[in-house]
Amino acid sequence: MTPASLASRIDSVRLFRRGALVRRIAPIPTFEREVERVRIVDLPLCLDDTTVRLESLHPSVSLFDVSVALDAAERVAADGSSDERELESKVREDATLRAKLAAIEAAIGAVEAMVVHGRPPGPEGEPPKETDVDAPLSLLAFRRERSETLTNDKRTIEAQLARLTDERRILSERIARSRGSVLPKPDELRKSVVVTLRTRGTSSEPGSIALDYFVPVAQWAPAYVLRTNSRERRASLELRAVVAQGSGEDWRDVALSLSTAEIMRHHELPELTSLRIGRAQPSPKKRAWRPMPFDPAELFADFERELGPPVKPVSAVEAAAAPADEPVAALAEADAVTAIPPPMQALARPVPVGAAPGLPSFARAPVPHPASAPPGFGGMAMGGAMPMNAPMAAAPQSRAQLAEAEDSGVLRSKGGRDLKARLGKAMKRESAASFADELLADVGAADIELEIDRRFLSYELLRMPPPEQQRGKLRLASTDEQYLELSSTIDVRFAAQIRKVVELSMRRTTARTKPLPSRHVEPEPVGGFDYVHTCASRVDVPSDGAFHSIPITTIESTLQLRHVVVPTESADVFRFVEIDNPIDAPLLRGPCDVYFDREFLLTIDLATIAPRGRIRAGLGVDQSVKCARNTHFSESTSGLMGGSLALKHTIKIELVNHRPDTVDVEVQERVPFVPEREDDIKVEIAAVQPPWQKLEPPLGSPPIKGAHAWRVNVEPSAKMDLAVTYVVKLPSKFELAGGNRRD
Q1: Which domain holds residue 725?
Q2: Which label site among 298, 342, 396, 608 has the fewest CB atoms less than 10 Å from its CB?
Q3: pTM, whole model, 2 decimals?
Q4: What is the average pLDDT across 36-53?
Q5: In the chain, how many domains are there?
Q6: Is 652 contained in some domain?
């Protein structure tokens, strides 16, 4: 029975550093049966089958037996019945138009058959009779008008017939693809999830199914927009993200969340073992979940008895012509053996009771007792249960007796050596299974541990071949076989080509991914922790592989507009803003578009900001604030006979504010410092106006020796002077490298 198709919609998407986890919601219809098989259709081809997860959002419905199938897009869009009905209507419309065309062609023929008779000839020698010309002219005008009308109608119907022919061809191809008689194109393939629903009791409440799966063709990068209002001292930071996805399905009206984590990462799971106190003991061996049958061939005994090929009876003539048993014949031909010793008698197989001598028996070899099977192999027989004439002795005993016979001198003659060779061939051919058992027993099969492939633990992927092909051996079904087993729209004749079509489609899908835009960087964890940003509203992301700017949220905060200048390096006064990060998630590194008082100013690269941290963004040079730096130098001696030299430096800085509001300016200045282990040179700060403080370096940066800073407020249209005087003292017999003047 074909599973019922369920339509679904994308409800939410969790976008990781690479790839996205998509959640779909499919409503559960009302079923009459307790167990129902359904198919969730129209899923992207690039989804990872191993990540498919289903959850029942209804308390009375449970889910089990989940599989992924491959379908064609036309079958997913409709189950084919609508296309067939549309094709039937097109065929009827075509027949109607052709009937109209035939009637129009007949009417055109009738109009063309109209003949206008001329003036009848009069008697000879007399003038022609008067004739009314209005009637012929009217007939000619009617024929012309009617012919033009019918010709136009014919052209219209012919155009409609041509259009209908194309539509019928398209519908026929679509129906053929939906029925699987045509190989689908790469862009027509879709995946679907087949699941079994089990309903417990009755409930009138509507329910739904949540389907989660992972698509690899998606990525994102953070971006920001900073809008400042200098008058109100307010700022808004808009968190955005550039998102690109080429999964083959558009994300329409979805709840989007963005994560810095990697969805797939290899980790070795630890195995917690118990600690034993006392004498060391060997760890217990792992046992299989179910004991294997001793002889798998016996599982097919009923099949061979009822459905197996019939055994051809052997006539008495054929039995007489049949060769005797090879070991027995070899014993009869041995000229050096007059009496068969006991060790050799065990090698000759006895004739079954009730069978004529030399007649082959069709009875099966009796199954050995399970105790003789080597432990550790679950009692599995190494060879198949082939028809034998009679039961054989155990191979280990036969070989031991053969060695005993050789030691006793029975096989030392020419006939004995030939007998030994023929017996060896017979043993190789007829005692392969017993010899394998002997070999395993000799090497210690009890100590052999079987390592089972973990793929065989996926029981839903195991297949049992037919009895005619490798019966009794489970094998893993390939991905193509799994897809075609559940597909209702693809013919099994295309099993060989479907893998190429899927690979081509996957390559096209992967090629849609483009590199990140300029200045954007991939999201990274902060301090070893991953974070998630959730969009405040639902968004749309088309599946075109291009990057789209998506709003996440907006942060409102107070604004602190500050200025900083380093007169030693440049007279330009730079302005920057400081705002607080009020959220518990970090602001990742990325580009930031800055708007100052509703005007776009520039784009900056925002560094990573910790949760509840402080954002500092530079706005460039403020031309409304001016700075000038002037220096004065004097040199003097002091002490007995001028033994000490004093180098006096005076630095004067002038700030002018041309803005209409008060500005906060930080002036950074640096004075010389004395290196370590230098006792003859001293630097003394004589005067500072106004007072300054040591410059604190940014977090994580080394301290700057001799760096100080003024933090002043300059009123509108006002001027402020800053000054510092420092003296460098050194012995008069020395001078500073590069000159005594430092500024």
Answers
A1: 625-731
A2: 342
A3: 0.59
A4: 88
A5: 1
A6: yes
